[in-house]
Write the structure tokens for this entry.
Amino acid sequence: MMKKTVSLAAAGVMTMIAAMAFAGEGHNHSNAHSAAKVNGRVVIAKSKTEQPPKDASKIKTFTLDVENVEIEVAPGIKTLAWGYKTPDGKPSVPGPEIRVKEGDYVRVILKNTHALPHTVHFHGADTPFDMDGAETSQAEGIVNGETFIYEFYAHVPGTHFYHCHYQTLSHLDMGMYGAFIVEPKKADKVKFDKEIMLFLDEWRVGADKDNFALQNGWPYGYNYFTINGKGFPMTETVELKKGEVLKIRMANAGYMYHTMHLHGHKFLVTHSDGVELNAPYWKDTLSIGPGERYDVIMKADNDSGVWMFHDHVVPAASNNGQYPGGLTMLIKY
Ligand SMILES: [Cu+2]
């Protein structure tokens, strides 16, 4: 076996921010603790445990709404989902990326104009309880016409995600999630040239393109499988230059285990659920359970080629049984 020496630390630091990222709206002097009306109804939150910083530049404000969206999970297979959106943006699955720095005060304004109640839960961010956005703190959800302001300090660096936690079984399965990335104050030990964020998920789409998640039942029997809302061959192909180092952030937003395997390379697992590991380890196949996040690093140091990165739960690398499809993407250099 050819022995490879891999020095990941030597690579450059140019970081490609995911195209879906939207910048913080920056200086927002509005006081979250005063009432503001949306469609006549208001719900304003304030954290009982944390107060915003005096320095307004440390407050990062994002506004989200929810809208029906037709997603194409495989070529020609379009189904209904519910997507988070920004005020000027289109709803999408995953929703818009929220990216802040460790120590920022995060203000996420959910202005719900969708027919159903929703919330935002920041999975992995360890917010105060009243900002948790789950059934235990927001049992009624934020209904049509209401606004809720989530505020908290981004104490926990790493790859997290936000998702609806109202009637979670169906709402999360309908695609209500997006990346919540907290960049660490202290740079990662392993440097990288590019980064991507991948959401793994699965869908059960009926013969008339209905999405079974709407039935709020036991949704197993998934037949379509997506990376960032699309199944292969619609998934992104990552193009690298020889020698470049890629950071892959992965989150499992679905209800199945996935086992991601990279051809031709070992990757270094550097973070687990956002936590930088004291002892990173090498893998070429990584099981990712529902809710888990992993950051891994790969170097384009084998032969040039079009390398597969796919779920080794092979039925999930198909589109309704047609292989290849689903949780498959290509890394090319
Ligand atoms: Cu919801």
